[in-house]
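U., I forgot to send this yesterday:
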Amino acid sequence: MATQKDKQYGLASGIITGEVELGRRVGDEPTPWRGQGQLRIEESRFVSNKIFNSLGGLLKLPFFEDISFSTIEGPFTVHGERFSSDGITFNGPIVNLKASGDVGPDEQLDLKVQIEFLQIAGRIPLVAQALEIFNRLAGQVLMVRIRGTFDNPDIQPLGL
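Result:
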């Protein structure tokens, strides 16, 4: 976790690699872009990200304010302005996520996210109240649906 001194609000960082194959017909009747690819982001960090902040608010866990993942990776497809995936995985020291669904035009989201809480006792300093909540969740898997946009996400629990 970052100290107050090195926080940069609204920050999203990481080392991005991947590959993508795109194609379209050009000429008098061009078609939308279509393709597929593979994404990998290493050493990612999100500070004051609206989606993670909303998720942390829903779960009553403050560490989503400044969260890091060792890797984010998975396949995706492109059709016009819509990106889809059957599973982008976020692997972190506290929690793992798996997101599937679509990001459409104007950053419209329609995602299902599986949240897996990892056993953390003694590994990461958390305030006592958050640690108590987290220990109750450790080993559990929760599902949420994210709609709206990146700047105004609407996150709802599924099956809770």
